[in-house]
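Database export, one record per block. Field names are fixed; values are copied verbatim from the stored entry.
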Amino acid sequence: MGCHRCERLVAWREGVAATGRAAYAGERYWERPLPGWGDPAARLVVVGLAPAAHGGNRTGRMFTGDRTGDFLFAALFRAGFANQPESVSAEDGLELTGAYVTAAVRCAPPDNRPAPGERDNCAPYLAVELDALKRARVLLALGAFALDALARQPSVAGAARRRGRRPKFAHGLELALGPAPGGGPARTLLCSYHPSQRNVFTGLLTPAMFDAVLARARELGA
């Protein structure tokens, strides 16, 4: 919880917390790295980019309190992975069933753009989560950056090498990974456009498109 590996991210997350945003005046920001969260017996692991400055960095829970989270949790609710469609605070009663959410980078980055070195610094934390989620069958990468982070994890990298190259991002990409190192069920990698405001507002990603990806994830994880 007290990671200081990335000086730029430490300065940014703490600076955001110190200045805040007028809409959240009086709220105490989390201002620390965020762990993933969800069902320990999850069949689906959703991997995003990084916490939002005034979302997870404020609320202390990944994807909570921002527009991306609004889109994501509403979709998880429709797919039966969440008990409610809204994500307002870490104490709002939201629970995930069969799903776990995390990110490639655990601290809010400037302009929502983490650097490759910051992704690599966070890689061990993602590895620990993937190893602990023994029942996970589907890894869902939200965007190219998340895919790149997953592609550097042992189980995904091995599958890519068998195909001669690292997987290239495409919405709806599906890649059979085989069992995780050390055993466990066979896993499949899925990709979706990231549910950022820009992607949603421009129609690059629609609720129907994301619902289809989650339906496939449920089918693979059954």
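Remark 1: The chain is about 35% helix and 15% strand.
Remark 2: Strands lie at 37-38, 44-48, 99-103, 138-142, 174-179, 186-192.
End of record.
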